[in-house]
Design a protein that fits this description.
Number of strands: 11
Structural class: alpha+beta
Number of domains: 1
Strand content: 25-35%
Mean pLDDT: 85
Low-confidence stretches: none
Distance between the termini: 15 Å
Order of helices and strands: HHHEEEEEEEHHHHEEEE
Number of helices: 7
Shape: globular
Largest sheet: 5 strands, antiparallel
Strand order of the largest sheet: 4-3-7-8-9
């Protein structure tokens, strides 16, 4: 899978229905914990003290003054596109996988130990916030490694990246970083993908919500890790609907490479969408202090070469109310 396939694993809306099913329980627990802290008598917690709701309530307790009594955000219904035309042999291979035959997933070789990393090269304040004084900017992240093992089980590893203090900014001020600052580093066996959800805040809030994020990503891993692929996607058509495979097929890749590309890509999209849903829920809890999350992914094929994403510098814009910041990032494969 080293033939230069080009795709963005965070663009598909077809995956929303799968992500919603996985994330809804976690988000429900988050909001029930919030409601309990704001009104314990009307909103008792469910389960025992080891349950996710109790853990989230304990994590949120010190942030209680910053909680917003908002209803849970509604997500738009996923749009549906026409079924893609897929070569018959590829669809037949995917049908075999959905029936429990994972032999094709073991074929892409060799596997490589890879150490990709995401760096920031520049941070610019296009417009500072309306608050008095300079903005104090911190950036943290949720870093996720996603893969499908040769036996068809999912492997998702999400971890919280400690926030980095970038200092104080006002309009038109910027910092160039030479050498670049490291945001997140990975080490895994390809084929797999690394995804980073970037979280920018104006003060120390990110350190405060770190325990909440940990509870949520632990819940995500418990619901995805070691689960068979067929437990997530019921049909081959669902796999194909999520992943743009035209470039893979046009490149003349081998059948096993195309099938592995589709399978791994679909699971990457799914995991990224679930993390995005969880961070969106947090954004609504602390809307006045957190910038909407920005995400980026790098997919690496069986030999460790870049299959999806880019190693060229790219810009992500963080905007909240009047404040606007541009960060320039680059993957190091």
């Amino acid at each position: 899978m080293s033939r230069g396939f080009s795709w963005n694993p965070l663009e598909s809306s077809e995956v929303d229905k799968h992500a919603d099913a996985i994330a809804s329980e976690l988000i429900g627990s988050l909001y029930r914990a919030r409601d309990h802290l704001l009104d314990p008598s009307r909103h008792p917690l469910r389960g025992d003290k080891k349950s996710l709701e109790h853990r989230l309530a304990a994590s949120l307790k010190k942030l209680k003054p910053r909680l917003r009594p908002r209803p849970a955000p509604s997500r738009p219904a996923p749009s549906h596109t026409r079924p893609r035309k897929v070569p018959q042999d590829v669809m037949a291979a995917l049908e075999r996988i959905m029936a429990g035959d994972y032999s094709l997933l073991a074929q892409p070789t060799p596997r490589a130990l890879v150490v990709p990393a995401l760096n920031i090269n520049r941070l610019e304040c296009v417009q500072d916030s309306a608050e008095p004084g300079k903005d104090e900017i911190l950036i943290g992240a949720v870093a996720t490694t996603t893969s499908v093992l040769a036996d068809g089980t999912l492997s998702v590893d999400s971890r919280i990246i400690d926030p980095i203090d970038f200092g104080k900014f006002q309009k038109d001020e910027f910092q160039n970083f030479s050498p670049a600052k490291r945001i997140a580093a990975f080490q895994f066996e390809s084929p797999a993908a690394a995804t980073v959800h970037l979280v920018m805040v104006e003060d120390d809030l990110l350190g405060g919500i770190k325990p909440v994020l940990k509870d949520l990503v632990d819940g995500l891993e418990n619901r995805l890790n070691n689960k068979q692929l067929v437990a997530i996607f019921a049909t081959a058509a669902e796999l194909v609907a999520i992943v743009p495979i035209g470039m893979a097929i046009a490149s003349g890749a081998l059948l096993a490479e195309i099938v592995a590309f589709i399978v791994i890509s679909a699971v990457v999209v799914l995991a990224a969408a679930v993390v995005a849903a969880l961070l969106l829920a947090l954004f609504h809890l602390f809307r006045d202090e957190i910038f909407p999350t920005q995400a980026t992914s790098l997919s690496l094929g069986a030999d460790g070469a870049v299959d999806g994403g880019t190693v060229a510098p790219f810009t992500k814009r963080f905007s909240r109310q009047v404040a606007v910041y541009d960060g320039t990032f680059a993957w190091q494969a």
